[in-house]
Amino acid sequence: MAKYDGIIIGSGPNGLAVAAYLAKAGLKILLLERRYEMGGGLCTEKVTLPGFIHNTHAVYHMMVDYAPVFKDLRLEDYGLRFVRPSPVMAMPLSDGSSICLYTDVDKTCESIGQFSKRDANTYREIADRFQTYMDDFLAPASYCKPVAPIDQVAMMQATEVGRELNELTEKTPKQIVDELFENEHVRGLMLFAACFWGLDYDLEGVGYLVPLFINRATNYRLCIGGSHHLAHVLSKVIYENGGMVLGSKVVKRIIVENGAAKGVELEDGTIITANKFVASSIDPHQTFSRLVGEEHLDPYFVQRIKDWKWEASSLLGVHLALDTAPHFIAAEENPDVDKAFVYVVGYETEDDVVSHFDALYRGELVAGGFNCCFPSVHDSGQAPRGKHTGLISKHAPYNLKNGGPEEWYRVRDEQADECIATLHRYVPNLTSDNILWRYVSTPLDIENKFHNMVNGSIKQGAYIPFQMGYLRPNEECSANVTPIKGLYVCGASTFSGGMVIFGPGYIAANSIAEDLGIDKWWQEPEMVISAREKGML
User: How far apart are CA 347 and CA 84, in angstroms?
Assistant: First the structure.
């Protein structure tokens, strides 16, 4: 019977972060992973041809400049590197023009100004304002325990930034974008940027995320060597500090005795005990209904778990091995287009974005827009010399209107063909001769590969008002604790959410260390201290 101080279930980004912090704090930590590979969404695979590596889930890292994990764990010392291409996001149009979002505000305003001088001036204003929102509240709030809604609103009402964010919260993403911008193409790009990560364009109550996502649209990073390199680097920290990561281990149950978590039982019958805690980074349904068991839980809590909702949409991915780099028609007018990181393709107006999302809600597949990228343009090591990788990523329903999720087995290739045909209209050299191989991943494939990405979930649960902030996943687990003593939650279904921002893992590491009375070797981030001094937290 193996004994550890702490057992963490699931080696996704947040599980790895918790393990790294606590192992470095001197605890004997075991991290258990169902798959052969650790990392969860930090997944880089050879799915097409030898020499081509593809980021098959996480690609766009949005909080590298804020997440304490990178500095605290000194990940650069282990060789971790990111690149921030510019333009970060580009929307080519069928007439050969384009809108580009650069890391440089002046260049972005120049690009937007081709369509609307007023919108260019507006962008200049909001770029500065949204950065203030990020620095004063949105970023620091992502890395400290959430505050009860009524208390948070009251605190924010006491500051100008807080009042403005409270006002935005009650608006839909579309309302915010329409109030700011006038040009239909600019509105299309900004609305997509705001809804990129699964926000419903017509949903009230989460509008505070719009400035975050628009700000991040010029701050995405690409991990050199592939996203999985980040998982490897975190594992090095764990191993160097006496921790252990075991793959291909299926947890059958969390052992609960007298209302407290004491360890886990694996599917093969192996018992592993935990002297101090167990933490789960997987979704609420599996953690509580399957691993803990409803017999150990209050009926009200069980109902709160059953109320958990998954996202309305998932992603269809088409990974490409290319003979040559893509050349966009729009690059003839602006050569920078060929150097962009993220492309918004097939959406030319706001109406295009709205009609696509409406179809998603109905479970329908429609031709049209998506985002895509070509990582090897920015990191040549992701493809053989002179060759390139590409990714088309299209929002798509998990449950198809005609046939349910199993219908994906029949339509996957025709949907991939449609995506490639759409991209070809903007990239003429994306011909059958240029495409050496392709790999198609559907929402059903995501669920099959990652068992806690139910319904192809990319954030481990929808971003809706009653599943955000203090209520993520619910009011009883808002500080990572659970009704089971010694059991913590630390995955993307907890505050502050998904997209490899490391917020849930970082906050959980703090919660566990504080509860156990462990001296934390890391310091509270300056941005959190500053936000608290301003009365925002």
Answer: 24
Helix, strand, coil percentages, rounded to 5, for the chain: 40, 20, 40
Strand order in the sheet with 370-373: 98-101, 89-92, 342-345, 370-373, 388-396, 314-322, 435-441
List, for the chain, all residue ranges whose pLDDT scores fall below the cut of 50: none
Distance CA 175, CA 312 (A): 20
Classify residue 335 as exposed, middle or buried by CB count within 10 Å of its CB (0-12, 13-18, 19+): exposed
Strand 29-32 and strand 2-9: pairing? parallel
Tokens describing residue 49: 């041809």
If one counts every other C-beta atom within 10 angstroms of the C-beta of residue 523, the result is 11
Is residue 439 classed as helix, strand or coil in its secondary structure? strand
Query: What would you measure as the largest C-alpha separation in the chain, in angstroms?
Result: 70
Quick count: other Cβ atoms within 10 Å of Cβ 387?
18
> What is d(CA 19, CA 40) in angstroms, rounded to the nearest whole number?
14
d(CA 488, CA 17): 14
Q: What is the pLDDT of residues 353-401, one digit of tens each?
A: 999 999 999 999 999 899 999 999 999 999 999 999 999 999 999 999 9
Give the pTM: 0.97
CB 234 within 8 A of CB 16: yes
For 84, list phi and psi in degrees, rounded to 5. Answer: -120, 90
Which candidate, 274, 252, 279, places its Cα nearest to that of 265?
252
Q: What is d(CA 494, CA 15) in angstroms, rounded to the nearest whole number?
A: 12
Tokens 């046939």 locate to 403
pLDDT digits (tens, 9 = 90+) for 401-440: 989 999 999 999 999 999 999 999 999 999 999 999 999 9
CA distances from 76 to 2, 54, 233, 234, 531 (A): 33, 22, 9, 11, 27
Q: Please name each of the domains of the chain with its CATH number.
A: 2-40+224-309+462-533 (3.50.50.60)
